[in-house]
Every structure is written in structure tokens, then in C-alpha cells.
Design brief:
Keywords: ATP-binding, Isomerase, Lyase, Metal-binding, Multifunctional enzyme, NAD, NADP, Nucleotide-binding, Potassium. This is NAD(P)H-hydrate epimerase. It comes from Campylobacter lanienae. Its cofactor is K(+). The chain contains 14 helices and 19 strands. The strands form 2 sheets. Strands 8-1-10-19-18-17-16-15-14-11-12-13 form a 12-stranded mixed β-sheet, with helices on both faces. Strand 3, helix 4 and strand 4 form a beta-alpha-beta unit. Helix 7 packs parallel to helix 14. The longest helix has 19 residues. The chain is elongated, with a radius of gyration of 25 Å.
Length: 461
């Protein structure tokens, strides 16, 4: 796992005030990280343009050009005239070593690389039309695009705002939570964490959120030989009106290592289950239950799941009784944004549109998890797992997973982890990572991926 922070301003200040590292030294190391990407990707003599605002991002970009000048043909365009003191210092040195000042009348198409130093992670509100138009032009260029810290415009998705579409985002000092928002996924490119000249453990401190990586994936193990199927849990899944969802969840749970899997048929569907999956008429003797997926209008006695480990999904989030499971530390809730909107309303957290959910995913997931002891898995392009106010972001998903039944497979995977005696939080984190990795190892075209491919992929994690 890697730590995630909203911003790094307090750490920068601590480095200067308490560790004796000057702000210019921090900027030198930030600039060096940008310059190294340029050197790795472009041949000597290429034309580099930095487009700058007035803040510390501009200082970092100017310093990077100073380092590159001589090897590369370097120019700067300023969108603001009131530079801060550090940017002025960097600019004076840069001009002395041959960095040129350009303006928007120049031919932008002649540049091989554009460095975005316009806005930082603190940008809020409406973007000036002039700046939005510049970013739009920059995005149209056939050039290497590098964002200093975070692509300009990512922080706000307001009408009229443009977002710089980077090939690389060089994140300064600590990884920023905003880089992993759903709205940022198509703009950040490859994220690189720049070391500012001090070890992470010395630079950052205190509470954080976390980026979970595929390397963090812990698989169920069967290291002991003197065991039986009973040692690996018995998963029960409620089958409602849409039986396919329950089948996908059941097959996922079985292939992820649950000792036994049973389906309880609530709607008297004509089920054709795999031989390894048992058909039950009740939840008697159940200890782990999945419900909601494909539930539809089927009659479901939610009380049978009370005080039991469970995964709550899909249609369950439109019933008032879902509050009982939000209040249970034994429950894992797996809504997509529309379902989360309903869950928030039912739980008295307010009314939010899907757009509002998507634009405030981190804040709302955190708020929900501080008030309800269940483990939340908020699905999306980057999945958020939240418990007790701490966010765990899994960013390794892909568009392959945007297919009907994908969420049902995820529910089954998490159920299998619960059956293997993982805690609800660890079940959620590992379940999401296993789900995402199954898509990564798929060899076919992105558009051909199905829930069956998720299930097959679980065999090879």
C-alpha cells in the first residue's frame, strides 16, 4: 500500500520549518523529477514548452526548463503576470541559461513536449475562458504532455472547465488523493511520485488514506493438508427474479475458494446450477450470506441475515431495511453510484444525484464510513473501500469490467474471502484487487470481456 494525502502543503512547511530544508531545495528535487522524464522520453534538441500560472507548480516547471536548457530548446508561456517570489527567482536564473519567453501567438504545434504548470491541486471554482481555451489547444497537440503535481483542472469538473490530458503526472512529495478520483482517470496518465530529497517516512506523517496495489493482493491459502470443505466456509446466496446474477456470484465464490456454495431460490426460478453448487430452500445453518444481486421483486426476509457475515448488493439498496446492514460491522456493502445515492438517502445522509456522488466520491464515502460501521465498497472506475473514515483506493480496474454481471462476480469473490476467515475490510480490499487483476490478465479484446472471464481469471491469480 502507498499513503495518499489530500495535499502536501503541511509536509512542505514542516520540511522547511522543522527539518531545515529550504523551499528552493524542495523545488530543485521536484524539477529534477520532471526533467528526468523528459530526458527518458525525448531526444536531445527537442523543443520543450512550459505553460505556467503563478504558483509553486510554475516554479517547478521553470526550474525543470533551467535544468534542460542546453540539451533542449526550452520556452515558457506565462498565463499570469503576478508570479510568486520563488517563481521569479527561478525565472531569472532560467533566462540566464537560455530559456526563452514566448506567448500564445507562437506556433504551439512546433513543440515536442508541453509541461503543465498552470494550476495545482488546490485549484477550485470556474476556470477563466482564456485558460480553458489554452488547455484545449494544448490537449490537441501531438506532443509529450507532463503535468506538474496534478493535471490542471482535475480538481473541478465545473461547466466550461478544461482538463489537461497528461501522459505523465509527476506528483510532488506525496501521492495526492485527487489523482485517483474517477474523473481524473482519463487525464493523469502514468503517475510518478517525486522524491523531494527526503525519505517518505521523514517527509510525511500522521493519518492518511491508502492506495492499494496488485502487489497487496493476498490469496486464500490452503497450506494445511488435514482439512475439509467445512474449514473454508459455506456461502449462501439469495436468488431473486434475475437468477443470472446469483449464478455469477455463486460461481465466483466457488472459484475464489469457498468450501461450499448454496443458492436459495426465492422466486421459484428454473435454475440450472453447476453440479458443485447446491440448491437450498432456506438459509438454515448459513453463516455467510450474499443478497441483493438480481433480487428484483422477490420476497426476502432480511432478518435471516441479521448478525451474520454478509455482502449486500444491488437491489438491496432500495429497501428501507438496508439501514440495518449499514449499522452492522459484519456487513460489506457494494453499491455502484446510483445505488449509493439511494443508500445515502435511506440512511438519512441526504439526497445526492449520481453526478454529485461522482464529483464527491471521496468525501461522501468517508462521511458514510464515519457514521456507519459496515465496510463500504463504492464501485467505479477507481473503487473506494471505506471503513471508519479511512479510504482504500484500488485504481487497477479497467473498462473491461464495465459489463453487466461484473458487480455480481465481485460480490461472490468477497463472499469467498469472508468464508476463508478474512475480516470484512480485508475481504473487501482483496476481493476488489482479485476482481481487477482478473481483468488485467485477460488476453482478449477489451470489449469481449464477460463475467465468465472474471471467473476463469480467478484460477490464475
Amino acid at each position: 500500500m502507498k499513503r495518499l494525502y489530500t495535499n502536501s502543503s503541511k509536509f512542505d512547511k514542516n520540511a522547511v520549518d522543522n527539518l531545515g530544508i529550504s523551499e528552493l531545495v524542495l523545488q530543485e528535487n521536484a524539477a529534477r523529477a520532471v526533467a528526468e522524464v523528459v530526458r527518458q522520453k525525448l531526444k536531445s534538441g527537442s523543443k520543450i514548452l512550459a505553460v505556467c500560472g503563478k504558483g509553486n507548480n510554475a516554479s517547478d516547471a521553470i526550474a525543470a526548463l533551467r535544468m534542460l536548457s542546453g540539451e533542449y530548446d526550452c520556452s515558457i508561456i506565462f498565463l499570469k503576470s503576478d508570479l510568486n517570489q520563488n517563481a521569479k527567482i527561478q525565472l531569472n536564473i532560467a533566462k540566464n541559461v537560455g530559456v526563452k519567453i514566448a506567448d500564445l501567438s507562437c506556433d504551439l504545434g512546433e513543440f515536442d513536449c508541453v509541461i503543465d504548470g498552470i494550476f495545482g491541486s488546490g485549484f477550485k471554482g470556474e476556470m477563466e475562458p482564456k485558460i480553458a481555451n489554452v488547455i484545449k489547444k494544448l490537449n490537441s497537440l501531438n506532443a509529450l504532455k507532463i503535468a506538474v503535481d496534478i493535471p490542471s483542472g482535475v480538481g473541478e469538473m465545473s461547466m466550461g472547465n478544461e482538463i489537461f490530458k497528461a501522459d505523465f503526472s509527476i506528483c510532488m512529495g506525496v501521492l495526492k488523493l485527487g489523482l485517483y478520483a474517477d474523473r481524473a482517470k482519463d487525464f493523469v496518465g502514468e503517475i510518478i511520485q517525486a522524491n523531494l530529497g527526503i525519505n517518505d517516512e521523514k517527509f510525511s506523517y500522521g493519518d492518511s488514506d491508502y492506495l492499494v496495489l496488485l502487489d497487496d493482493l493476498e490469496l486464500p491459502n490452503r497450506n494445511l493438508e488435514n482439512v475439509s470443505k467445512g474449514d473454508f466456509g459455506h456461502v449462501f446466496i439469495a436468488c431473486g427474479d434475475m437468477s443470472g446474477a446469483a449464478k455469477i456470484a455463486a460461481n465466483s465464490a466457488l472459484n475464489m475458494g469457498a468450501g461450499r456454495v448454496s443458492v436459495v431460490n426465492l422466486s421459484q426460478n428454473n435454475l440450472n446450477l453447476d453440479p458443485q453448487i447446491m440448491l437450498k430452500t432456506s438459509f438454515d445453518n448459513s453463516d455467510i450470506i450474499g443478497f441483493g444481486m438480481g433480487l428484483g421483486g422477490a420476497k426476502f426476509d432480511y432478518k435471516v441475515c441479521s448478525k451474520k457475515l454478509c455482502v449486500v448488493d444491488a437491489d438491496a439498496f432500495y429497501h428501507s431495511w438496508v439501514v440495518e446492514f449499514a449499522l452492522s460491522d459484519l456487513a460489506v456493502l457494494t453499491p455502484h453510484p446510483k445505488e449509493f445515492s439511494s443508500l445515502m438517502k435511506i440512511c438519512g445522509m441526504g439526497e445526492f444525484s449520481v453526478d454529485e456522488i461522482q464529483n464527491n466520491r471521496f468525501e461522501l464515502a468517508r462521511e458514510f464510513s464515519t457514521k456507519f460501521p459496515s465496510t463500504l465498497v463504492l464501485k467505479g472506475a477507481n473503487v473506494i473501500i471505506a471503513q471508519k473514515g479511512v479510504l482504500y483506493v484500488a485504481s487497477q480496474g479497467s473498462s473491461k469490467l464495465a459489463v453487466g454481471g461484473s458487480g455480481d462476480a465481485l460480490s461472490g469473490i468477497i463472499l469467498a474471502y469472508l468464508a476463508n476467515h478474512f475480516t470484512p475490510l480485508k475481504s473487501a480490499i482483496n476481493g476488489v484487487l482479485a476482481h481487477q487483476k482478473s481483468a488485467q490478465i485477460y488476453k482478449g479484446n477489451d470489449y469481449s470481456f464477460t463475467p465468465n472471464d472474471i471467473i476463469k481469471g480467478l484460477k490464475w491469480l
